[in-house]
Amino acid sequence: MAESLAIHGGPKVKTTPFGTGKRFGEEELKELREALEQDTLFYHYGEKVKGFLKKFNEMYGVRYSVAASSGTAAIHVALGAAGVTAGDEVITSPITDQGTVIGILYQNAIPVFADVLPDTYNLDPASIEARITKRTKAIVAVHLAGNPCDMDAIMAIARKHRLKVIEDCAQSYMSVYKGRLVGTIGDYGCFSTNDFKHISTGDGGMVTVNSGDEQDYAIVHAFADKNYERFDTKVSRDIHHLAPNYRMTELQGAVGIAQLDKLAWICDTRKAYGAMLTEGLAGTPGIVPPAVTEDSESTYWFYLFRLDTNLLNATVDAFVAALNAEGIPCIRGYIPQPVYLQPMFQKKEAYPGTNYPFSLSDVSYERGICPNAEAVLQTSVRMGISEFYTPDDIRDMATAIRKVAAFFRKAEES
Ligand SMILES: *Cc1c(COP(=O)(O)O)cnc(C)c1O
């Protein structure tokens, strides 16, 4: 007999509060005080943004990176530096944050969505290759929820077709693919320090310059700063092409220095908790835990598992409601629908009153273009993972999922 569900008046699985903790403390305050005492908050005059990037570069083993005002800004900067311009196509994942595509459209380029793999939810290299056209200029590979994309396959396709590769690492700090940190494999790696990411500076972002080339670095650096070339005491304000002001302030840099000291612990804890949850769910009929890419380590920004509704007498919404009643917060999917089903893409209208730049391409955003992505979002449950949770919290999450799955399990046919 299956146990009585809490949603039906039975006992709840989760009877103790989830672990909590403070992300900011004396370390951040000390850095902020020093930033203010410099009497400048401008990154080029102060030492905090520089110190933040120096530390980040050491952690990532890269020679150069550039700070930006957000993850969205970091991706736009990388696209600009990659030479993405009006009429180009950029291939990316339909399961991502809007921030992945905003820079593409601001460059008047056209986002093209490739399908994902059904088990890792990351870009399927075969689908990327199938969507390459004469217009394709770059690939933005989104490492979803801390799980690395299949970078060997993506880099091979990019080399074959001479495309730039930008890694969207907003959700994947310290994630490892075949012994390498994601964000150091493509041409550029983009990170976000918005308040919901592994580390926070309120808002902010970084772009790694993986060529290690000084000229490449100068281009990335300028694109985040109105195309001013600001090196040492020389400043060139000759503007040949358009670029935004996406500068990071000294206050963000200061908080970032202290946050980077916590990053390894945050990522190690999340890595362990994600693996523990997957282990706790193994062999549960109807539950499909997320697959980590081969030879990779995920740092679990969130935990998205799928339901096999052939084995369960429940809709995803009913499953989520039952889990919530057990005291386990979760929601259906990650985003409600693939990015291309948003009205902006359905109407092909990014700038009000015009279909430009979509009109330059015959790209399709019809329902059905990425069937795996649509199915993943319709059949998945998203659980938050926090470094402040305790191992008991993770055990309770797994127990509750197994309890709800057992209740809804279809009778075996004989
Ligand atoms: C958060 C996020 C972004 C955008 O970062 P912001 O700092 O919010 O602009 C881009 N891509 C992905 C995958 C994200 O999760």
Give an overview in words.
- 35% of the residues lie in helices and 15% in strands.
- It has helices at residues 26-37, 48-60, 71-81, 99-106, 125-130, 151-161, 214-223, 250-281, 316-325, 343-346, 371-379, 391-408, and strands at 64-68, 89-92, 110-113, 136-142, 164-168, 176-177, 180-181, 188-192, 205-209, 229-231, 234-236, 287-288, 296-297, 302-307, 331-332, 380-384.
- The longest helix has 32 residues, at 250-281.
- The chain starts with 25 loop residues before the first helix and ends in a 6-residue tail after the last helix.
- The chain binds pyridoxal-5'-phosphate.
- Pyridoxal-5'-phosphate binds at residues 70-72, 96-97, 99-100, 142, 168, 170-171, 192, 194, 203, 205.
What's this model, at a glance?
The protein has 414 residues and is an alpha/beta fold.
Features:
single chain, 414 residues, alpha/beta, Aspartate Aminotransferase, domain 1, Aspartate Aminotransferase, domain 2, 2 domains, 7-stranded mixed beta sheet, 4-stranded antiparallel beta sheet, 12 helices, 16 strands, 15% strand, globular, binds pyridoxal-5'-phosphate
Q: What structural class do the secondary elements suggest? A: alpha/beta
Residue stretches low in confidence (pLDDT < 50, at least 5 long) are none
Bound molecules: pyridoxal-5'-phosphate
The largest sheet, given as strand count, sense and whether it forms a barrel, is:
7 strands, mixed
Q: Which architecture name of the largest domain does CATH use?
A: 3-Layer(aba) Sandwich
Q: Provide the residue-averaged pLDDT.
A: 97
> Within the CATH hierarchy, at the fold level, what is the topology of the largest domain?
Aspartate Aminotransferase, domain 2
The string of secondary-structure elements, in order, is: HHEHEHEHEHEEEEEHEEHEEEHEHHEH
Just give the CATH class of the largest domain. Answer: Alpha Beta
Q: Helical content, roughly?
A: 25-40%
CATH superfamily of the largest domain: Type I PLP-dependent aspartate aminotransferase-like (Major domain)
- Please give the alpha-carbon distance between the first and last residues: 19 Å
Give, in spatial order, the strands making up the sheet with the most strands. 1-9-8-5-4-2-3
Keywords: Aminotransferase, Pyridoxal phosphate, Transferase
EC number: 2.6.1.-
Protein name: DegT/DnrJ/EryC1/StrS family aminotransferase
Family: Belongs to the DegT/DnrJ/EryC1 family.
